[in-house]
Specification:
Number of helices of chain A: 6
Order of helices and strands of chain B: HHHHHHHHHHHHHHHH
Structural class of chain B: mainly alpha
Shape of chain A: extended
Distance between the termini of chain A: 83 Å
Distance between the termini of chain B: 36 Å
Radius of gyration of chain A: 24 Å
Mean pLDDT of chain A: 82
Helix content of chain B: 55-70%
Strand content of chain A: under 5%
Number of strands of chain A: 0
Number of strands of chain B: 0
Largest sheet of chain A: none
Oligomer: heterodimer
Low-confidence stretches of chain B: 1-15
Shape of chain B: globular
Strand content of chain B: under 5%
């Protein structure tokens, strides 16, 4: 074993450990902020795995999208919602935990079975290295054009939905039917902080 | 300064001085295996670039003090060394020996990890900065995209330190920093995309080479004036420099996410922000001002003097001119940023977000569209 392969093996071991332990930490830790930060670490380690597979563009995209956007958004949401609320105790928590553990174990078993029974071609196809960026672009605009465009439509829908939810000046009644519109999801203006208490 | 030969063999298209080859031959002469010699070589360029980044920061801090003094008709640091050039070193030493305080109610682990997470991506981004044809650590194919991806990690560090400080000013500062850097990343990436489209490559070396055909006239700033402005504004916002230094707006937030920090942890933030400023200026010079290119192409000059570009002397001169040009353009931009800091007032948070989302984003999209159509219409001038 020369230096290059042994470095690769060590890197893989470290990254895999980080992914597994970090993933466990994300679901097992009590502090939700810790979970969110650990999730970022897991995403970074996955990007490292992509890098080991010579997929540098995918790795950078992983960092940009998952760490830079998804994880930051999760953290944002956690830090903006700082309501101290006593949650109601959930009934039959124990059976729920056992059930979900069963489902997860079943999924893991299935994945391991697929992994063991699939005839993997070893060694795999040669990496194309720096050409990968061009190849991904070609695929996105030829045979994967429809999913790519559909994803953009989905994002547009989400964006319009977010704008509607964030806007405060919405119509009270439907223009066509004249019925009042359900506004339970729409953000209301905050009541003024300094209410004149003397009038009560 | 830095002289590093590209570690990728395909970068050596022309025969010239290969520092790595020379180094490994010397080391192998001492009876060391080739792969070990390669391992010994690897940290050297990285160390050199790290040292260069740190020296760049020291110079920038000194410049900041001197220029701000001049803007306010003061003298500025004067006694520490000639013209006060040792003042930044004294600052660094002071921070080094200062007591490292962790507030009692703060979250110690995240409090320590935050500044580190802010600094590391910035330093990693120096990987792709070319100081010359072969003078960079690694000519990675995804080049400039790597920088965009890495700079998106920084907000996590800011949020982490803001949260861990357990202080409302810190939390607000951290949230502001993250919001700001997310919203300015999009126009920034779109501006970069227009440049990438013209040079048909993400690699920083290719981007500079595409600008060096006709010297000064072929710099991207003439073909991408709007993109240049967008990139510069967004880079200032990403560095949290005035007029966009809302995350640490003194009058509102004490010092934002840095409020609770002291000693070396504060120094990490300080270093990070200045390294980021120098890095952004370097990238502006690489993307828009022709990088290492001399206003008149060096190949032409060599041709007029009847010298081959491959002779060692010409190579050394070309390399030095490249480094000097890169550093000169960079520090011109740093000077501009410092002048901006000491002459413009700060924008409000709503103005900042309005500028980012309602002005820069549509304009950068339009810029991208225009660049694409110009590229189709005039493939000769816009890199078909």
């Amino acid at each position: 074993m020369n230096i290059a392969t042994s470095t690769e093996v060590i890197c893989f071991a470290v990254l895999a450990t980080v992914v597994v332990i970090g993933g466990l930490g994300v679901i097992l830790l009590d502090n939700i902020v810790y979970s969110a930060f650990l999730l970022g670490g897991v995403f970074l380690a996955v990007a490292g795995l992509y890098l080991l597979l010579n997929a540098s563009f995918v790795a950078a995209a992983q960092v940009l999208v998952y760490v830079g956007a998804v994880n930051v958004l999760i953290l944002f949401a956690i830090m903006l919602v700082n309501k101290k609320e006593d949650l109601k105790p959930i009934k039959s928590l124990r059976t729920r935990k056992i059930l979900s553990a069963g489902v997860c174990a079943g999924l893991l078993g299935l994945l391991i079975r697929v992994n063991l029974t699939t005839p993997w071609s070893l060694p795999g196809p040669n990496g194309i290295g720096e050409q990968a960026t061009i190849r991904i672009g070609e695929h996105l605009f030829t045979d994967y054009l429809l999913p790519f465009e559909l994803a953009s439509v989905l994002l547009l829908m989400a964006m319009i939905g977010a704008i509607v939810l964030a806007r405060r000046d919405v119509l009270v009644s439907d223009v066509g039917t004249g019925k009042s519109v359900n506004q339970s999801l729409i953000e209301k203006t905050q009541p003024p902080l300094l209410i004149d208490k003397s009038s009560k | 300064m830095v002289i590093i030969t590209g570690t990728t063999p395909q970068a050596m298209t022309s025969q010239g001085i290969d520092l790595e080859l020379g180094f490994s031959q010397v080391v192998q002469g001492l009876g060391i295996r080739p792969d070990i010699a390669h391992l010994l070589w690897l940290p050297l360029p990285m160390l050199l670039v790290l040292v260069a980044a740190l020296i760049g920061v020291l110079v920038t801090v000194w410049l900041e003090r001197k220029v701000s003094a001049a803007a306010q008709q003061r003298i500025g640091p004067e006694y520490a060394g000639a013209l006060g050039v040792l003042q930044p070193l004294a600052d660094g030493l002071k921070l080094l020996v200062k007591e490292d305080v962790i507030p009692k109610r703060a979250d110690g682990l995240l409090f320590t990890l935050g500044p580190v997470l802010v600094l590391i991506p910035v330093i990693l981004s120096w990987l792709i900065i070319p100081f010359g044809q072969n003078l960079l650590i690694s000519n990675v194919g995804i080049g400039i995209f790597l920088w965009i991806a890495l700079s998106s990690i920084q907000p996590i560090g800011l949020l982490m330190s803001g949260y861990a400080s357990n202080n409302k000013y810190s939390l607000l500062g951290g949230l502001r920093a993250a919001a700001q850097s997310i919203s300015y990343e999009i126009p920034l990436a779109l501006a970069v995309l227009a440049v990438v489209m013209m040079s048909n490559s993400l690699s920083t070396v290719d981007i500079v080479q595409q600008q060096n055909g006709f010297g000064l006239l072929s710099w991207n700033v003439w073909r991408q004036p709007i993109g240049f402005l967008i990139f510069w504004i967004c880079a200032l916002a990403e560095c949290e420099r005035l007029p966009f230094d809302l995350p640490e707006a003194e009058e509102e937030l004490v010092a934002g996410y840095q409020t609770e920090y002291a000693g070396m942890k504060f120094a990490l933030f300080y270093l990070g922000s200045y390294i980021n400023l120098v890095l952004s200026s370097l990238l502006v010079s690489v993307l828009y001002l022709g990088g290492w290119g001399f206003p008149i192409p060096v190949e032409w000059l060599a041709g007029w003097l009847n010298q081959s570009v491959d002779t060692p002397l010409v190579q050394v001169i070309t390399g030095s001119v490249g480094i000097v040009m890169t550093v000169m353009k960079t520090y011109l931009l740093v000077f501009l940023a410092i002048l901006l800091r000491w002459t413009t007032p700060r924008v409000r948070i709503d103005q900042l977000l309005d500028l980012g989302w309602k002005f820069l984003l549509p304009i950068s999209l339009a810029n991208l569209l225009i660049t694409a159509s110009l590229k189709l219409a005039f493939p000769l001038a816009f890199g078909g």
